[in-house]
Amino acid sequence: MTVSNLRPYQGILPSIGDSCYIDESAVIVGDVSLAKDVSIWPLVAARGDVNIITIGARSNIQDGTVLHVTRKSNNNPLGNPLIIGEDVTVGHKCMLHGCTLGNRILVGMGAIIMDGVTVEDDVFIGAGSLVPPNKTLESGFLYVGNPVKQARKLKQSESEFLKQSADNYVELKNDYLNQ
Predict the structure, then answer these.
(1) In a 3-state reduction of DSSP, which class is residue 131?
(2) Model confidence over 109-139: pLDDT tens digits?
(3) pTM, full prediction
(4) Pfam families of this UniProt entry (predicted)?
(5) CA 5, CA 25: separation in Å to the nearest integer?
(6) C-alpha dihedral (89, 130, 144, 66), degrees to nearest 10
């Protein structure tokens, strides 16, 4: 990671936990907190300027993803921070905006998750899905489509893969850190 890819906003610098990997082409701005073993891959933009972004331990944000938030207002006094739980895999070119993701979630490539969405633990979101504002995705299901719909319960092998995917990226980021 370079000094230029971690940028302050109004005097607030990103907070980076132990053993994190941030690709030099990623840009992280403002009130962004990364827990231990988080990986941020090429061309990710995380902008914690008008609210906070928190990413839990062992989560990975893959290439080209945009992370942003919603500002506080009279209509929405808390705004919408972006909260990502532990062991979350966010696929390539996703957009997460002012939403809350629980633990052990896989967000498929190109998915868009909008303001006020809550994704409970142990969820698969299919590639290219659009999760409209203020929707709740219930734990233990696969969701697909535009707009997203609950497709079916997760198989046991899929549920187990959610943690395995995060573990795979922890191993990969360790390889990058040890080069």
Answers:
(1) strand
(2) 999 999 999 999 999 999 999 999 999 999 9
(3) 0.96
(4) Hexapep
(5) 7
(6) -20
